[in-house]
Amino acid sequence: MTSPNSESARIDQLFTTLRSTLDQARAAGTAPPPDTDVEPVQGRTDPDGGQVQVVVSANRLVELTLDPRVKRLDAEDLAAVILKAVNDAFTDLGENAKAAAEEIDVDPDTEALGAKLDRLQDASVRQMAMFEQSMAEVVAKLMGGR
């Protein structure tokens, strides 16, 4: 079970919001197309933003880069830095997805898009929960098994 403050809960809420937006777009006839040959939207941390750099897509952590200086951080501070970087990347992903959706101007198959959104939500929430568990294990190992 995920905490209501966990990233997987936030992703689940994002997809719920997307589903609501899709339903509104269906009603207005302005929903985006389900399939295009466009590069997947990604979010990333500011490249000059700090010791942890993150790139995410809608359903996975694509890249995680740690500056060697993170070795100086205790486990709690490291976890906070990683969490902030991941959250920043997901915020950027949301902004990029919104911008990409605003550029689309075609008549879509909204039923297929809704089904795809359902599958993506399920996969994303599962993968984020697995990521959170993995990060907890990393932090526990860094703390020496405590």
From TrEMBL:
Tell me the first and last residues of the signal peptide: none
Region span, Disordered = 24-50
Q: Name one Pfam family in it.
A: YbaB_DNA_bd
Stored SUPFAM superfamilies: YbaB-like
Coiled coil feature spans: none
Q: Which GO terms describe its molecular function?
A: DNA binding
Can you say what this protein is called?
A: YbaB/EbfC DNA-binding family protein
Species of origin: Phytomonospora endophytica
